[in-house]
């Protein structure tokens, strides 16, 4: 390749979970390895998986992972608008890292003009600072019912004149219909920016796929820039609970005599479930997400993870019969953030649920009160004699009335609680915690020394960059980034859907 690229590209997808986030991460690492100063950007993200930047802003966890791929410190500009659903109809709106409102879908449209300008300001700031900005779309650009107010897909592409690559997930089937249909449903000015396709998660012989690639090129006039093969064990920071069904990090033979089995309650509004990825990375530790108390029977450690809707998910937990099972078990229990709040004696919530005083599970000597202001922090501490770095995202304030200290929270007997996300990513602390919980559970499990969660994450990012380098057309991608969408791309007929100006 000749001159390094300068410019931008938007990676869209035929569906949610088509692989946009990991393709963006792979391109970021591929560019960074070539000496390009690159930043990821997602104008609007809907996710319950978030993190806190060094300057105290809350952004999507996927953008933090992509920033790591790019080798840069994440900022609020990387994800200026974050929507955090609290129910099927309402979401918290986080703008440049700070919550500004809780709205339903219709109320959200009142913010659209303002938020579009916020997103464009952040994009322009990144373009001034970085050589390349790799943008990620949201859902599908062909969600025509949402096009008028779109600020994450073709709305952004049109406003910033971005070339667009559409990623299709062939593992789901119907990839060629999805690629053709995505282009065909767009209005002409949007179609003019769709510059090519990437087929993702391919298993099998490329020769059998080639006739389809040739036909989709002939039908649309757009090339397929590459076919990314299926990558076993990919687990990088998925955006939503769709990713929970994917394989977790592979585990190996335990260092001791027995494996350790971890059961994680899969709340309807589960958040920051990537806390558990570090456990899955330990050889001999098996992590599974459960929805019924019968699945706890053989668990050695039970985890109540984060929740965007603590009181509502606590009610779900009770309705499913988990409360009695947790009270009766003699195995260790860990609550993180929302899960920690559920373990309290009482929860006073006039903010998130509006339910007022609610009885908690009573497994820890704590009480919780929700406050309007959200805590966003990157705390540091020490436990078991090892340093711990973490992050906090919560409205609930926990008051401890007894027990013994555990990180920022407390412990009583076999039950542990903390508001700190990411604590288990600290290797020495994680191994000490697993050793103690294994002893409490009566398991002959010894954590293997030397497992580095950070090194495993870096290896995943490098593997993604290798996929991009080996299977995408690098010169064509460079040309798109630098020169934009080619002129004169053919327009597809609307397929029965009238094209009307929506911008």
TrEMBL record:
NCBIfam families reported for this sequence: cobQ, PRK00784.1
SUPFAM superfamilies hit by this protein: Class I glutamine amidotransferase-like, P-loop containing nucleoside triphosphate hydrolases
Organism per entry: Actinocorallia herbida
Keyword match Aminoacyl-tRNA synthetase: no
Sequence ranges assigned to domain CobQ/CobB/MinD/ParA nucleotide binding in this UniProt record: 10-234
Species classification: Bacteria, Bacillati, Actinomycetota, Actinomycetes, Streptosporangiales
HAMAP family assigned: CobQ
Cross-referenced Gene3D superfamilies: 3.40.50.880, P-loop containing nucleotide triphosphate hydrolases (3.40.50.300)
Function field: Catalyzes amidations at positions B, D, E, and G on adenosylcobyrinic A,C-diamide. NH(2) groups are provided by glutamine, and one molecule of ATP is hydrogenolyzed for each amidation.
GO BP term, pick one: cobalamin biosynthetic process
Keyword annotations of the record: Cobalamin biosynthesis, Glutamine amidotransferase
Keyword Cell membrane: no
Pathways involved: Cofactor biosynthesis; adenosylcobalamin biosynthesis
Family (UniProt): Belongs to the CobB/CobQ family. CobQ subfamily.
GO molecular function terms listed in the Swiss-Prot or TrEMBL record: ABC-type vitamin B12 transporter activity; catalytic activity
Domain CobB/CobQ-like glutamine amidotransferase: 261-428
Protein name: Cobyric acid synthase
Catalytic residues (positions): 337 (nucleophile), 421
Domain of life according to the entry: Bacteria
